[in-house]
């Protein structure tokens, strides 16, 4: 049993309050508990982070020194890589074939990638500002924002903790992380690495809990910047709460990303890619292309192939190497997905694969069969809302303009894919899609840390990752230095200025 504690001011602190059980999605067995923290624990963490920011060495170190600490964090996590993978498999239900790369390896690579960006923060910022003759000199300095509160969703806990903490720390901020109550392990591992390498106390803090911990953290006047990844509904609440104290916000939210199949697409590639994108990690990826738009001319051919390939996917426990699609995170998430499928069918959808609970899997686990829904109207709930489970919705379109219109007819704008044998044509179509990330003839590619995530519409506010994402954790100070002490040359001293 892992009985988690909050990590505040460089130490684990027991909490006398209530706890919440954590289960293994593959079996439903309780494997730990977290403290259901509230305002008092949040206040301790923010106070520690504020003290570390204003009094500690962190904000005054060079970006190069802080980059070395990111590398040390990566090395510490890497030194117990197998343990990290086992913990994340049990915690997230991510299959063992994907987990080492996706949940554990990529965050380590990202820590090192962010470390490489340190020169971007060296002062002063180098773009020339030419002062008029007789005036002084301007320099622009990038400074840390202060105390950063990072909200982590359940699906990629260590990965997204790194996406937030690495750029925030590199820029000289201190952080308070709030993991999902469903998957606390990855953020705990990050705190343990911080402790092991001797990160100064209070620079990284972790407060476990759910809504109360989350709202207390957003509301806390000691927080300067809120960086949130999670659902659009909660993101909007966070944005509105943060407005009360005029905090900076970065939001990475939900999606209903289209896979637009052009009439000349390679069927096997498009079908395999879209099934991978929409079913991988139990369909719990924000950038999953869960809306496949297929031209009338190829609709039946695609449905036949989708049915065949979806039925070949192996559902099973995350730790089993044969598993293609593992469980979803919780019983509540499974029930939510099942309700979506029922509502979609009531709304006219036809189930061509899945739509039920799979057989031959551990009884207590939270499994959903890979499900493909066809014949959906554009208003069908499964064509519009993010389901966050292994459910692919297939819609048909008449001509490419119609396909582009349908692809963009959504409140989301996170990702999209275009499938075509004519790359130039696909590039033309990609330019018309309203999403922050678009793939041509592939899915799930991201040279993460260097590739910005900037979801459009209700998928995002601000940018995460890449240099733009890093700069989001800084504020520019414009510094003016007069080059002489000549009062006569000043607006408040010159003859005729009225101030002399
Ligand atoms: P969620 O919105 O339920 O929770 C996200 C975090 O916010 C959790 O730590 C949660 O405990 C906390 N929280 C919940 N209510 C809160 C409140 N009222 N105030 C403050 N904090 C609160 O999201 P989830 O179910 O954990 O994750 C799935 C969602 O995350 C999906 O919508 C998915 O698309 C999205 N996501 C987006 C990206 C991206 O980069 N755009 C990446 C991963 C996941």
From TrEMBL:
Domain spans labelled Aldehyde dehydrogenase: 12-478
A family per Pfam: Aldedh
Keyword Disulfide bond (UniProt): no
Organism lineage: Bacteria, Bacillati, Actinomycetota, Actinomycetes, Pseudonocardiales
Domain of life the protein comes from: Bacteria
GO molecular function, one term: oxidoreductase activity, acting on the aldehyde or oxo group of donors, NAD or NADP as acceptor
Entry keyword set: Oxidoreductase
Matches recorded under InterPro entries: Ald_DH/histidinol_DH (IPR016161), Ald_DH_C (IPR016163), Ald_DH_CS_GLU (IPR029510), Ald_DH_N (IPR016162), Aldehyde_DH_dom (IPR015590)
Name of the protein described by the UniProt record: Aldehyde dehydrogenase
Source organism of the structure: Amycolatopsis acidicola
